[in-house]
Amino acid sequence: MSAQRRQRLAASRVLCAAVLSCALAISPTIAAAQAVTALAPGVLVFTPASPATGPAGFQTTPAIVTLMPERPGVIYYRFGSGPGSWTRCTGPVAVPEGKQLLSAVLIAPDGTPSDVVTTTIRSDFSAVSVVGVGALSASVATYAGTTEVSGGVTVKTKVRAQVGTTVRRLGGKDRYDVSSLLANESFGTAKTVIIASGEKFPDALTAAGLAGTLGAPMLLVLHNKVPSQIGAELTSLGATKAIVCGGPGTVYPSVLADLRKRGLSVERIDGKDRYEVAAAVARKIASITGGGARCYLARGDIYPDALSLSPLAYAQRAPILLTPTYVLAGATRTELERGGYTSVRIAGGEGSVSPRVARQVAKLVPDTARWGGATRYEVAVNVATQAVAQGSNSWAYVGIAKGTVFSDALCGGVAAGNRGGIILLTAPEPLTSVTSNALNAHVGDVRECDVYGGEGSITPLTYDQIHGIFR
User: Under a CB-based contact definition with an 8 Å cutoff, are residues 218 and 411 in contact?
Assistant: First the structure.
């Protein structure tokens, strides 16, 4: 063997030894790292295997959850998806009523937290018969007759069980069916009703504040007649007065004559265009409430932003004024100048109400702010969030409407406002992601969720997606 070859062989042996030495040195570190990774989850969550169930499978007793540590440390937990305080786990955890998001974390003795473990748990333990809306019950019965009786007694009871979150579709063959159904479900009886066009959206949306001022439902009509289902609903409500919002070009005089024939006194609030009608409605509200306080502003040639505002307007008895995108409407300017408003909230991004118009409004009412978003769906979520933050509305009731056509949603704002709730929008299919995210974020807060419109407006797939969030 040559001297050169012996040198190469010796060098190769040294290199192999060095590599083996390095491998042996780092292998314990790798093993340790793998062990830490395996322990990272930290908490095991054990839920009841067979909880007691009531109607439709709802749990009728509080669900008890057991949290077990996977390594030494202290477990902390909390319910809800938003920021909140953590509670130290000292034993079995009772889950609050409704659908709850449970989060748990293990804090090691050295203060290192594990990964947060999350799971969703239902605990609808108040699924029992109650007296309330839609429920009839008698706890005491009296009998007058002979002292000896025989036979059986039949008691009929209509009960609405209180179970977690109720999701339902309020649909019909057309917008007038939906209008009638919403009025019936939300009000039951009403002496005064608001009448607006079902063919054009502005008057119906800007009248939401007036409906709230009077505690009145809204019903839609055709330009030249009262649809049969609306006529039947007027009778069912026991209405004696109708306030028609919109000029004679939107709701014909023949409709007012029809309403009078049905025994209603009729008042019309009108103007030459949608901006004047909105301002006239604002003045009507002020004549009842004394005026001032807050008003809302939205673009007048599209409906989503004004629709998102309508539950707030109802709840606060506040007007919704309208404007074109780039120039403040004259009637709106005049109303802002003389209305004595202390604040204005603009719904919609800069593409809906331009910065120039916003500046013009701020000169008239200094406390002016924008509730915007990149899309109509984001605007709706932002408006809902602001409504809850200011305390006028809550997530307990959520109405969901189609975000591309106004027909089924026109009366939704009044219905949602009457229940102190909010409105979100979605595409027909699938459920819009920003709306889905908002529902998931407030899943523990929502008690009722109504989907406005039939399957042609919001498809069965989207309805199932909404329903699935609350199950």
Answer: yes
First to last CA, the chain: 80
70-81: b (≥16 Cβ within 10 Å) or e: eeebebbbbbbb
CA distance 25 to 14: 16
pLDDT digits (tens, 9 = 90+) for 224-267: 999 999 999 999 999 999 999 999 999 999 999 999 999 999 99
> In a 10 Å sphere around its CB, with 0-12 CB exposed, 13-18 middle and 19+ buried, how is residue 268 labelled?
middle
Q: What is the pLDDT of residues 96-133, one digit of tens each?
A: 877 788 889 999 888 889 988 888 877 765 543 333 33
Q: Report how far apart, in Å, the C-alpha atoms of 413 and of each of 202, 212, 218, 388, 405 are.
A: 13, 10, 10, 15, 15
Residue reference for tokens 């008057």: 203
Secondary structure (3-state) at 290: coil
- For residues 312 and 421, give the distance between their C-alpha atoms in angstroms, rounded to a whole number: 8
Structural domains of the chain sorted by starting position, each given as residue range(s) with its CATH number in brackets: 43-123 (2.60.40.10), 166-469 (no CATH)
Among 463, 443, 435, residue whose Cα is nearest residue 169: 463
Joined together, the tokens standing for residue 246 give: 């919109």
The residues facing 67 across adjacent strands are: 45
CA–CA distance, 283 with 331 (Å, rounded to integer): 11
Positive or negative: CA dihedral 110, 115, 120, 121: negative
What is the Cα 250 distance to its own chain's centre?
A: 31
- Distances in whole angstroms, Cα of residue 149 to Cα of each of 25, 90, 138, 153: 95, 58, 21, 11
Residue 57 is encoded by which pair of tokens? 């499978």
